Amino acid sequence: MSAKAAGDLALPGVLVSGFEGPYGICEDHLGDLQKHFSLITMKEFLKNKTEFSQKIQAIYIWGGRPVISRELLLSLPSLKLIASAGIGLDHLDLPLIASCGVKVANTPSAVSSPTADLGMALLLASARRVVEGHQLAVSPCTEDFPTNWMGQEVSGATLGIVGMGTIGYKIAQRAKAFEMKILYHNRNRRKMEEEEAVGATYCERLDDLLQQSDFVILVLSLTPQTQGLIGRRELRLMKPSAVLINIGRGLVVDQDALAEALKNEVIKAAALDVTYPEPLPREHPLLKLKNIILTPHIGSATHQARRQMMENLVGSILASLSDLPIPNEVVLK
Predict the structure, then answer these.
(1) Contact indicator for 75, 60 with CB cutoff of 8 Å
(2) Are 233 and 261 in contact (CB under 8 A)?
(3) 128/139 Cα distance (integer angstroms)
(4) Angstrom distance (rounded) from CA 321 to CA 280
């Protein structure tokens, strides 16, 4: 680790995954981070635990890295906070972290709007077969554009939102502008004024939402209750013309069942920003289907959102180091 990369060694130590590769922190964030912290990579830490173990007071998680293990926690006696980019927490063992006296913060406000935007983008792209259309338009084999090449109408269609948290509600706000009929299923019902503001109707039973919706969008974090929530039974409840969109977590959907449903036209199409694993093995059956759109987990992947995430993490770490209330602290329930 170069002195340039690490920053001022007199500053509080923060453990990061690295500066390069798919899980490296953003290069254009480095200067901002160095103003406040001495950045220590996992590689450097593992090479010299004696030097760095007492110095590290926070861990900066970007892209789910570094991985937090019991061994790592026990090797960092000065650790106060784990600051994790994004909203999902399924990569963290919260009870284990709390048992070590360490707090956790994430960045929910930074990701909600761009993730909602991507959800609508996937809905529109799948409905109007945008990716297939692009392939048709650029194919060297194309001689004519068929007049009977059609997609599905979005305006006036029924959208079922599964998971009406901040992101789900922002999707409802966007769907209202498309004059969609909005149904939602959530652990807790929204306030009446919030429902009225977007014209949303609560479905206490998920089955009712699945049977009525033209588009079903999953906006769920991964928990024992949501893992495998959408399987063969649920897919068969959906309309043959329906589209499934997942911007939550890959394991919420039984992917084998989804591949079978798409192949056998149990549902019309799917659009996934999340899968399990990520990326899918290159031989996975979902990759061989034409009626699916796959994106590489880019819900929050805008320059603006990523910068806000970094700034939120910095604010949380600084507050923790000063024993102040931590913005976006995750409270174990």
Answers:
(1) no
(2) no
(3) 18
(4) 39
Instruction: Please tell me which residue in 65, 190, 249, 306 is annotated as part of the active site.
Output: 249
Question: 249 an active-site residue?
Answer: yes
| pLDDT at residue 4 in the model | 45
N- to C-terminal Cα separation, the chain: 39
- Least Cα distance to 209 among 230, 232, 179, 178 occurs for 230
Nearest by Cα to 114 from 306, 300, 271, 303: 300
250 secondary structure, DSSP code = G
Is 70 catalytic? The answer is no
Cβ–Cβ under 8 Å, residues 198 and 168: no
Active-site residue identified among 297, 303, 311, 329: 297
Angle CA 104–44–69, to nearest 5: 40
Distance CA 46, CA 49 (A): 6
Q: Output the six-digit token pair for 86.
A: 């994004």
Q: H-helix or E-strand containing 160?
A: strand 158-162
Q: Which residues contact 154 (CB under 8 A, 6 or more apart)?
A: 123, 124, 127, 128, 178, 180, 215
Active site residue 174: no
84 touches 320 (CB < 8 A): no
Work out the mean pLDDT of the chain and round it to a whole number.
95
Look at the chain and count its residues. 333
pLDDT for position 10: 87
Distance CA 161, CA 183 (A): 6
Structure confidence by residue, pLDDT tens digits, 2-43? 444 455 668 999 999 999 888 889 999 999 999 999 999 999
Q: Provide the whole-model pTM.
A: 0.92
pLDDT, residue 21, reads 86
Cα distances (angstroms) measured from residue 53 to each of 2, 48, 260, 269: 18, 8, 50, 50
d(C-alpha 255, C-alpha 51), whole Å: 45
